[in-house]
Design a protein that fits this description.
GO terms for molecular function: hydrolase activity, acting on carbon-nitrogen (but not peptide) bonds, in cyclic amides. The chain is of the alpha/beta class and 629 residues long. Helices cover 34% and strands 19% of the residues.
Amino acid sequence: MADIICRNSILFDGSGKSPIIADVAITDGKITAIGSQLDGIHGATEIDCQGLWLMPGLLDIHTHLDLELELAPELPEVVRHGTTTVVISNCSIGVTYGHQRRNGEDPIVDCFARVENMPKSVLSRVADSCTWSDSQGYLHHLESLPLGPNVVPLIPHSMLRIEVMGLAASISRKPTRQELARMAQLLEAGMSQGYAGFSTDALPFHFLANSPNKKKKIPTQYAGFPELSRLTNIVRRYNRVWQATPPKDNIFTAVRSFMLTSGRLYKHPLKTTVLASIDLQTNRVAMYLCLLLSAILNSRILKGQLRFQALSSSFRIWSDGAINPIADEVPEFRVLNELELDDRSGRARILNNPQWVKAFRKMWLKGKKGWSLASILRRLRLEDVVLTRQLDDMIVAECPLASWVGETLEAPYRRLLKYQTSSSHNPSLHDEETTFFSSFPNPIKDDAAFFLHLMQAWDTDLRWETTFANRNAKTLRKLLFHKQTLPGFNDSGAHLANIGFYDGNLRALKIAQQEGLQQVSRMVHRLTELPAKFFGINAGLVRPGAQADLCIIDPVALEKWDPEKTYHFIHRSQFGCRQIVNRPDAVVRNVIIGGKMVWDNGIYSEDFGKTASGRVIRAKDHPLEQGKM
């Protein structure tokens, strides 16, 4: 007698082999039998999987769910998408060492609020509950939660520096020899406790959120190469993973840092996963440089183990006025982001400051007119910024003029130009729009003046969206199947009001589906066993003895699904704010975690969020993890 039997499924076991028609039996949380017909076994629950895909639960290899785990440890948006294992504490930030509040410092709020666009009030409440003080205590805490999916923690570098040096010192000076030795000691402890790896960050738009640190970046970015080399060498000895982000504006520093993966130079390769290889609209060669760098480092000469993470989705982002996750890349927007979200008067002072306006106009118009190096680079899609600064790329999601919603900002800009050059009132214009147009400078100079006036008039009441990467379907497909990449990067739990990639893994399967079942099998492997092997964890395969983490997908619903039309805005009471989610209907039929049915035809189980289905997964070479699969 089994607890659950999945009958007549199209089984993808995660290995990349062709699918087979099979029954799968689950008993006491484990897969106990796989066969073409398990007639001798009966289940308390039997699932008819005729025509459905059965596969290992999917992995999300890059998340910022650390905070949500403290508020809603069942992680409902993750689970409903067939994801059963998540990697947390990426980009050097997390709650591994508790709240770390000392000397008036509040590191969790300082590090997360701007980097991950999370409300300070929620972060403060989470910090209040982080009563542990070391990495072992954090593991015990995670194991006490009613986890939905399995959780794979990393040691976050910024929090490690703060733990040893304090926040103020970690962003203002080098560590002493004793402090660096203490960091190494704590990282060694984390590796011996089974943490899957170590995360750092070098992206130039990750800044702290509290005074007096608002012009400072997060602590990991102040670490020199000797510190990075010493700490990653510990990760290398344990054969764990270094998760990193590149200093995108400094190719020399990036190459020097990622040479740490080399087994030729350092005797043993360092498993390294880097965020991310994406097809930027403003720079069409960036992803090729990433792939080339990875190929060189992984060559027989250097013997590295580096994989760039790949996002399976178009990179669609919502902005509130000038506020979005990448705005800190641009100094003119960064000064606005340094203010609190509700400080409208503070932003108004900046937006009307003549010096700031001059700087904004220079930034916005760079390369748009005439002939110059900047204009040539713009025409060739070789710019060094992510934002496109194009009105026809900016779609209105919300604003005080309802008639604008769904339009690009280029459309009302053109109507404004026509309005200002018309000698008589245009009756086709809405009265509200006519009134608003009368408030603009006349004549309007250019699109910089237009967008500036919108920010001055509406501030965050203007909500717009843009897709700044992964627009080309063929290019995206190449990235997802490229041997130098790891798909499964969804950034779940980050930027709650600005992005939502929870469906990224399902999108990857949909892309593969267009080329037949063998390609689906390849993609299942790339979303399950491949990243599980890379991170050194027991997950990602359907085989007897493995923990029963499975998802069942309806291929007909997957084929019909239009991912760009299933975004929703919901109010999450746990966060006290609006969140972007995407919920494909009926694509994921069932999700089983630890042998428990947690998602069944659109409904969570009664004990979901009350009792644990997932577990904390340590590295599989750790004593507590050995023999579990």
